[in-house]
């Protein structure tokens, strides 16, 4: 009976210790310690929605979600499998402990496919300009994805396994939809579809391009000036 008590007591202590470790909070003033996490990336359904701090979620930015880190915290995320690093700014919440949820842009920059082990480190103030400068630094990475051969079935690329269209905007009526299409560049007019649920407003103008994920994002970057609400959509 004594042995059984000790065994249960020992297991209880272990469970409490594990819970304490998993619930450990990160000190945002500690810019030295690296905390082990799992790196994942957002699903496309979140594109265009509001994040926890009120910003519009954009897969093309270097941002991330975390369970409890202060909004605006700058993080250095390191892929433990290859050593690649990226700087992200926390602007959303992730319900899972010890997980940092990255945009597709940030995940691709460090080679995250699915869920992979990463380290995160809180960065001191003053990293905003370096964070913004990553756009130019990682442009070469994007161009590589546009030209690299398709991975083998054993190692499918999570972003290129599907084809994507681009929703340019939504309008309130068929008449407005047709008028808008006539104002588009000639080379696009034949490729724009008018889609709606049950033939009721709103009507979506969708550019039927069926591009790989990375090419679709490159196209969106060029379209954002004329179509600020354009977003990527999986082709059916």
In short:
The protein has 236 residues and is an alpha+beta fold.
How would you describe the overall organization of this protein?
By secondary structure, the protein is an alpha+beta fold. It folds into two domains: 26-147, RlpA-like domain (Barwin-like endoglucanases, Beta Barrel), CATH 2.40.40.10; 164-234. Helices cover 30% and strands 28% of the residues. Strands 1-5-2-4-3-6 form a six-stranded mixed barrel. Strands 8-9-7-10 form a four-stranded antiparallel β-sheet. Strand 3 and strand 4 (85-92) form a beta hairpin. The relative contact order is 0.13.
Structural class, from secondary structure content?
alpha+beta
Return the average pLDDT rounded to an integer: 79
Helix-strand pattern: HEEEEEHEHHEHHEEHE
Number of domains: 2
Low-confidence stretches: 1-5, 9-23, 142-160
Secondary structure topology:
Layout: H1 2-22, E1 35-41, E2 63-65, E3 74-79, E4 85-92, E5 99-102, H2 104-109, E6 116-122, H3 128-132, H4 134-147, E7 164-171, H5 174-182, H6 186-189, E8 192-197, E9 200-211, H7 213-223, E10 231-234
Parallel strand pairs: 1-5, 2-4
Antiparallel strand pairs: 1-6, 2-5, 3-4, 3-6, 7-9, 7-10, 8-9
State the main characteristics.
236 residues, Barwin-like endoglucanases, 2 domains, elongated, disordered N terminus
């Amino acid at each position: 009976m004594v042995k059984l008590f000790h065994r249960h007591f020992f297991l209880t202590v272990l469970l409490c210790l594990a819970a304490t470790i998993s619930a450990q909070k990160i000190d945002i003033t500690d810019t030295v310690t690296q905390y082990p996490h799992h790196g994942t990336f957002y699903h496309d359904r979140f594109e265009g929605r509001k994040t926890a701090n009120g910003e519009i979620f954009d897969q093309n930015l270097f941002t991330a979600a975390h369970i409890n880190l202060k909004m605006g915290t700058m993080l250095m995320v390191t892929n433990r499998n290859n050593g690649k690093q990226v700087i992200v700014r926390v602007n959303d919440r992730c319900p899972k402990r010890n997980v940092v949820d990255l945009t597709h842009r940030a995940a691709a920059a460090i080679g995250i496919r699915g869920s992979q082990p990463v380290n995160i480190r809180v960065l001191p103030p003053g990293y905003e300009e370096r964070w913004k400068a990553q756009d130019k630094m990682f442009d070469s990475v994007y161009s590589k994805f546009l030209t690299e051969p398709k991975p083998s079935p054993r190692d499918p690329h999570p972003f290129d396994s599907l084809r994507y269209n681009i929703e340019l905007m939504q309008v309130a009526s068929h008449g407005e939809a047709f008028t808008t299409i006539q104002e588009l560049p000639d080379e696009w007019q034949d490729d724009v579809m008018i889609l709606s649920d049950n033939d009721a407003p709103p009507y979506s103008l969708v550019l039927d391009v069926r591009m790989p994920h990375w090419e679709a994002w490159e196209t969106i970057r060029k379209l954002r000036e004329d179509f600020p609400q354009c977003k990527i959509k999986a082709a059916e």
